[in-house]
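Reminder: ligand-aware prediction takes two inputs, not one.
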Amino acid sequence: MSDCIFCKIVRGELPATKVYEDADTFAFLTIQPTNTGHTLVIPKVHAANVFEATPELWGKVQETVRKVASAVEKGVAADGVNINSNNREHAGQQVDHIHIHIIPRFKNDGLTLFPHHDRREDEGEPVAAKIRAAL
Ligand code: AMP
Ligand code: ZN
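Here is what comes back for the chain with zinc ion:
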């Protein structure tokens, strides 16, 4: 995609602070880190989100995530990492090119990324049934 900023990074038309690259994927530091070392993993070919990804493409991205997550944790001496992907506008996706966030976490860093509640009765089996039916 000619005007996609992550495609431009892949083509070298925009700068990026590269962490890793192979034939199919690219990893670089975000310009707005949640914590120092916050890294994004993207496929080199354009696909907007998980819904557009082929199994092969998604597998390649996830293998790079696995590899880079270890390096991020070691590299910034983190105590763990969160791995997250926002898909579509109302899930917080700002750049419409698949990207997986690897966010280093530190003991007592104070972040609460996903607030949650105890599951209600109506959020159990009836919801699972709807999801199963959509598979
Ligand atoms: P999301 O909100 O999940 O779409 O995340 C978009 C991510 O891309 C955020 O972490 C942004 O800081 C990051 N980002 C946007 N533009 C750039 C850029 N030119 N270089 C590096 N990271 C970027
Ligand atoms: Zn793109």
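Helices lie at 5-11, 55-75, 125-134. Strands lie at 18-21, 25-29, 39-43, 80-84, 100-105. We will return to this case in the review session.
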